[in-house]
Automatic annotation (TrEMBL):
Pfam families: OsmC. PANTHER family: PROTEIN YHFA. This is Peroxiredoxin. NCBIfam families: PRK10738.1. InterPro entries: KH_dom-like_a/b, OsmC/Ohr_fam, OsmC/Ohrsf.
């Protein structure tokens, strides 16, 4: 897997993935940015959310469960001083689907967190990550 990040100006960057997709990243105005894109640390958090969501939906579908909604809300705390690393991340899933059970969702979330989600497992080596979920009506 490869990626490239090109500096454009001030704190504006364009990242390009090895698969050819681009994303704009920028810094806050107090650091010379114009707020034109996500912050790099936000991108890291989004990557975690996307990785675990992919796993959970895949695991549920593989188990023949119909998923009609899966949203992941992430909340992270960061250190107060530099380097302002993540110190705690909470991952909250909101799911819906006909016949979807708490038991099936709990299993999928656990498998993602403990076995399949590369981002969760890697970040979990240095950050406290917690998970929960709720089943919602559409």
């Amino acid at each position: 897997m490869k990626a490239r990040v090109k500096w454009v100006e001030q704190t504006l960057m364009v990242g390009e993935s090895g698969s050819g997709h681009a994303v704009v990243m920028d810094g806050p105005p107090d650091f010379g940015g114009r707020n034109l894109g996500v912050r790099p640390m936000e991108m890291l958090l989004l990557g975690l959310g996307g990785c675990t969501q992919f796993d959970v939906v895949h695991i549920l579908r593989k188990g023949r469960h119909q998923v009609t909604l899966c949203e992941v809300e992430l909340e992270a705390e960061r250190a107060d001083t530099d380097p302002k690393v993540f110190t705690r991340i909470h991952v909250h899933f909101r799911l819906a689907g006909p016949g979807l059970t708490e038991k099936a969702v709990e299993r999928a979330v656990r498998l993602s967190a403990e076995k399949y989600c590369s981002a969760s497992i890697m970040l979990g080596q240095v950050v406290e990550i917690s998970h929960d979920f709720e089943l919602v009506a559409e």
